[in-house]
Amino acid sequence: MEYFSSNKMENAEFEKSRIFRIEDEVDYVPHSVISRTIIKRPTGNIKALSFDAGEGLAEKVSPFDTFTQIIDGKAEVVIDGVSKVLEKGQSVIIPAHTPNSIRAAGRFKMISTIIKSGYDI
Q: What are the domain boundaries of the chain?
């Protein structure tokens, strides 16, 4: 699997005041996971990601809650060993300090939002 940012500048944000359709802003690439930064701040970030069929993100633990919204296709989200299948329009909050992974059940796109403020780390 290849994972990379499709921005020329890795931390580049979307242009402010520009109207856009988020699902059009991140393309599918064969055998890859693509990430585009929408907003990045010290207090949190929002990213759009696309996953080709069979791709995913390895299990990890974040010190912050993560809001995950599927905007195209279908994904399997595993939270603390429990598998949940989310379809377009569905969302889940992955709790802080909880093992989780994401796998493509076919190609899919998602928005990931992390708010870092308000936590005792």
A: 2-115
CB within 8 Å of 14: residues ≥ 6 apart: 20, 25, 36, 37, 38, 39
CA distance readout (Å), 68 to 15, 17, 18, 30? 22, 24, 23, 22
User: Kindly report the CA angle at 35 between 112 and 1, in degrees rounded to 5?
Assistant: 115
β-pairing, 2-5 vs 32-41, is parallel
Architecture of domain 2-115 in this structure: Sandwich (2.60)
Asked if residue 45 lies in contact with residue 39, where contact means CB atoms within 8 angstroms, the answer is yes
Which tens digits make up the pLDDT trace of 93-119?
Answer: 999 999 999 999 899 999 999 999 776
Number of other residues whose CB lies within 10 A of the CB of residue 103: 17
What is the end-to-end Cα distance of the chain in Å, rounded?
A: 32
